[in-house]
Amino acid sequence: MKIGFVIYDGMTSLDFIGAYDPLTRLKTMGFLKNVSWDVCAISEQITDDRELAFSPTQVGTPLGRYDLVVVPGGYVTRKIRYEAPFVKWLQTMEPCPFKASVCSGSLLLGAAGFLKGKRATTHPTARVELAEYCAEVVDQRVVDEGSVITAAGVTSAIDLGLHLVEKFAGFDVKEKVRRQMDYYG
Amino acid sequence: MKIGFVIYDGMTSLDFIGAYDPLTRLKTMGFLKNVSWDVCAISEQITDDRELAFSPTQVGTPLGRYDLVVVPGGYVTRKIRYEAPFVKWLQTMEPCPFKASVCSGSLLLGAAGFLKGKRATTHPTARVELAEYCAEVVDQRVVDEGSVITAAGVTSAIDLGLHLVEKFAGFDVKEKVRRQMDYYG
Question: Which of A62, A102, B123, B125 has its CA 20 to 30 A from that of A175?
Fold first, then answer.
């Protein structure tokens, strides 16, 4: 399984890292040997919404190669959902069997056209914007529509990650990852 | 208030980011205007325990200038607590009024001598090692000994961050930050 973690200027880091931690444990804790991941951006270095710098491992590479792509949120999503080059890059994930978002990252999945006819969730402050893109805005930590999985605000990244761990590796593995993360969610 | 977030090779990113998110919201959400922070390491670039790269904003700078220093954990703490140059650098935080750790980061505070006579906590798998350094190992999400505050495993970083937000800015601010983070811990 190949995972692509999307990062971009102005993202909220906890949206990214909260999902990255449980998902990458599929490999580091030895549950699934063929898991690999990239950190994907359209520029050489990005800074989060508080100026923390991250270095992606893939720059501008089309996203269609991944089995799962995870898109974080950030206040800036309200703006960049209208930026054509960025949205066009996000649209390269069309062939990916699983597309996931945290927080207002769902606005980006929506702008890319992946939420049509689907139920979805987002940060509590982004529900009106999300309604433009999906069939129904749902007030749940994680909304799983099979191929598209969206999560609520910031810390729900952890719940999304654990949900995906269970989806790909089962309940027992999810419980082991959850305990190692010392999480009681 | 000046905050120093310590990062190092092999750390667990969620330990860092889980505390960084609520603490930096003291400024970004407009509660305390004089909050600033640095990301501090002893090398130009560090990679976490899964090879994610971070760029510190301060390299090798003594830590005594900060009001609060936050030290994340990682499996590598079992080894680097014996590395003299790193521990010596950590000891430069001696004058800081508040020293905090997440997960096995408490082993590093312990190795630096800051847990003598104090109650402390850590990741459930590091309790035996922690006992060498402190008066009592406590099974709690966050243990606040006034000047030294330690948290349990990985995701307790969020609880530590919110605890410190409340300590520095009060219950109402903590509740606003918690809600914005969509956290129910």
Answer: A102
Give the tokens for residue A139. Answer: 């007030």
How would you write A86-112 as a 3-class SS string?
HHHHHHCCCCCCEEEECCCHHHHHHHC
A107-129: per-residue pLDDT in tens?
Answer: 999 999 999 999 999 999 999 99
Q: Alpha-carbon distance A60 to A44, whole Å?
A: 9
Judged by CB atoms closer than 8 Å, whether chains meet at A182 and B158 is answered as no
CATH number 3.40.50.12580 is the correct assignment for the domain at B2-180 = no
Q: Which amino acid is at B96?
A: C
Out of B53, B124, B153, whose CB is closest to A55?
B53
DSSP-derived secondary structure for A114-126 = TTTT-EE---GGG
* Cα of A48 vs its chain's centroid, Å: 15
Q: Is A156 in the B-facing interface, judged by CB distances under 8 Å?
A: yes
The one-letter amino acid code at B136 reads: E
CB neighbours of residue B59 within 10 Å: 14
The answer to whether B13 contacts chain A (CB < 8 Å) is yes
Contact A72, A152 (CB under 8 A): no
Q: pTM score, two decimals?
A: 0.97
Give ipTM to 2 decimals. Answer: 0.96
Q: Which residue does chain A place closest to B23, by CA atoms?
A: A50
A181–B contact, CB cutoff 8 A: yes
Which has the closest alpha carbon to B116: B131, B141, B134? B134
Per-residue pLDDT for chain B (185 aa), expressed as one digit of tens each?
999 999 999 999 999 999 999 999 999 999 998 999 999 999 999 999 999 999 999 999 999 999 999 999 999 999 999 999 999 999 999 999 999 999 999 999 999 999 999 999 999 999 999 999 999 999 999 999 999 999 999 999 999 999 999 999 999 999 999 999 999 85
Query: Closest partner residue to B183 among A13, A49, A155, by Cβ?
Result: A155
